[in-house]
Amino acid sequence: MNRINQKLQEDKKLLSIYFTAGYPSLNDTVGVIEDLEKSGVDMIEIGLPFSDPLADGPTIQASSTQALENGMTSEILFEQLKDIRKTVSIPLIIMGYLNPMMQYGIEAFCLKCKEVGVDGLIIPDMPVDVYHNDYQAIFEKYGLINVFLITPQTSEDRIRFIDSISNGFIYMVSSAGTTGAKNSFGNTQETYFDRIGNMNLKNPQIVGFGISNHETFTQATHKAKGAIIGSAFIKHLTTHGTKTIDTFVNSVLGKQ
Amino acid sequence: MKKTYHVNEKGYYGTFGGAYIPEMLYPNVEELRQQYLDIMYEESFQKEFKQLLKDYVGRPSPLFYAERLSAKYNTKIYLKREDLNHTGAHKVNNTIGQILMAKRLGKTRIIAETGAGQHGVATATVCALMGMECIVYMGEIDISRQAPNVARMKMLGAEVRAAKSGSRTLKDATNEAIRDWISNPVNTHYIIGSVVGPHPYPDMVARFQAVISEEIEWQLQEKEGRSYPDHVIACVGGGSNAAGAFYQYLDDERVNLIAVEAAGKGIHSGESAATSVLGEDGIIHGSRTLLMQTKDGQITEPYSISAGLDYPGVGPMHAHLYDSKRAEFISITDDEAMTAGLELSQLEGIIPAIETSHALAIFDTRKFKEDEIIVLNLSGRGDKDLNTYIDYFKL
Q1: Does any CB of chain B come closer than 8 Å to the CB of residue A226?
Q2: Which domains does chain B have, with CATH numbers?
Q3: Looking at the annotation, which residues of B are catalytic?
Q4: pTM of this prediction?
Q5: Fewest C-beta atoms under 10 Å: which of A57, B106, B134, B278?
Q6: Chain A residues with CB inside 8 Å of B185's CB?
Q7: Which residues of A are less than 8 Å from B27 in CB distance?
Q8: Catalytic residues (chain A) (predicted)?
């Protein structure tokens, strides 16, 4: 069974952390992953940096620009990850935009993911129908789980369709906007979380965008299976470097 | 089925096009996709669109027989005078169409991207005309090099927001506009300035610009007794003026289509914007098309002396015209373009935009027969480029 599916069966709320590969320094990727696992994180999204990240706010944009300046490429990322399964056992997902993966070759990219032990992909600008018609068979051949996004504006029919072609979890974008930390969620989000929670989807939902601390993590996971933190963690890396990752994770989990 | 170079029902030109957008944008783009054709071909829409093109933009734009230019190159050259439109270029045909579209979609807030500022000015203009809130994203670097157009937009009541990410130019301004749309999905319409972006934008913008070739048909009928030329020539950055000039002739193979790209300092100089030659199949701004990028799929910054041609991608219609060989693609360097701009000024008394000068420069290398009829789309006037001309020629 895919590590993502196994993790989703655990009886707990899941904390997933996003960070940009090759940030703050090119060779920080593996160390950050290992420290996140040791700190008690359940799942990791490894950001493959892109020059034009449309869905991302200023924090992740800046980390992507820095990672590219550091020299990060798809090839280097796979090279860095080649022994990752010797030290890390939690699910690993690559999150990136479609263009760099197309240039690598979609099938070659999926094959590499399988070889190094990546369990799934999140590609925000890959259309649902293109995946369904062109790529689903390839993803399945290499045992990769593809994760789709839904937003407060996504129609019920479309959510049900996305649920039907998903086989891991659904990435629930908390509110209209790009990635970036908010301090709290309002009534609109509560209503949205409830609405999706009551749809009885076959795939669990993990909430992302706007989760930054223990309070927003708790709110987001009241109905959903878990939550993803990205920008707030990148900010932590920017300010404190890679030495105190456990401090950040503990504060989100309310264990300080 | 008859072969066509128009968009198919799924939003593709051959393998190019589509809507490669994050889910956050899906409702906005889908709303537009479902409604754009119905709205555009409503009688009241067409009436208002045509009236504004006539009374406000000043259409039809003349089709002018350039006698001295024709004599020099020993062929028959007509110039389609889009430079005489209000705001000085073809861009306004699209912004008039899209502002009417936005009104009918019930939107109250307009966003746009701009590179050199021409599309930003054309958008700010129609927003002033319609009393709509207008925010124009412009790269921080472009803001500093295009001060007069920034002032124009401000005078027209628009807010100009600096795009400070990435390379801080047109592609980043487009990213910022898209991010704004993601954050404001309900009340905002995004007026894209060229035949780029996710479907239905390339097709919608091409249909608004199609007025150019619709007029060429009847104007040529009057002057030559036939509605089609042997060649249509237009410069291509994103490709909106070329899309408009080609539109009625896309499937008429009697007409040779010639797209002229900016070679900058030379195609292989590392400072170029010749996307068809240097680009690879990929995704930019929600569209699958040819774009300039590294081997690793990072989008690179193009270069041209003309700020309107330095877009790293090209509209999917043009990618398909190139790939299918329906259109001839020619690249022109900065120097060739500048020389041609000066030549047109002195032969015909028309100072062209530097974008257009690229199209004009092909007569030095591409020979035409004496009795061939050529229509060259004179996409814009050179007022905005005077400083560049002054610096270049030490005027």
Answers
A1: no
A2: 13-52+91-204 (3.40.50.1100), 58-89+210-393 (3.40.50.1100)
A3: 91, 113, 379
A4: 0.97
A5: B106
A6: 153, 176
A7: 151, 153-155
A8: 45 (proton acceptor), 56 (proton acceptor)
